[in-house]
Amino acid sequence: MSGLTSTTPIPTGVVVHSKSRVLERQYADGQSYRVPFELLRV
Asked: Deepest in the core among 2, 22, 29, 35, taking most CB within 10 A?
């Protein structure tokens, strides 16, 4: 895939929150990001 390098962070966990309609990605450094389902519909 284009844009990936050896330093590109790879998620260590992915959680789907069905009720709140959010996808959460977790990384080894402790960061996590929550993305609403509406943004994934593109």
From this structure: 22
Q: Is the pLDDT of residue 1 over 70?
A: no
Structural domain that includes position 22 = 8-42
6 vs 19: CA distance, rounded Å:
35
DSSP 39: G
Task: Flag whether 21 is in a domain.
Answer: yes
Whole-angstrom distance, CA of residue 22 vs CA of residue 36: 4
pLDDT at 3 over 90: no
At residue 26, the 3 state secondary structure works out as strand
Asked if residues 13 and 25 have their Cβ atoms less than 8 Å apart, the reply is yes
> In a 3-state reduction of DSSP, which class is residue 37?
helix
Q: How many domains does the chain have?
A: 1
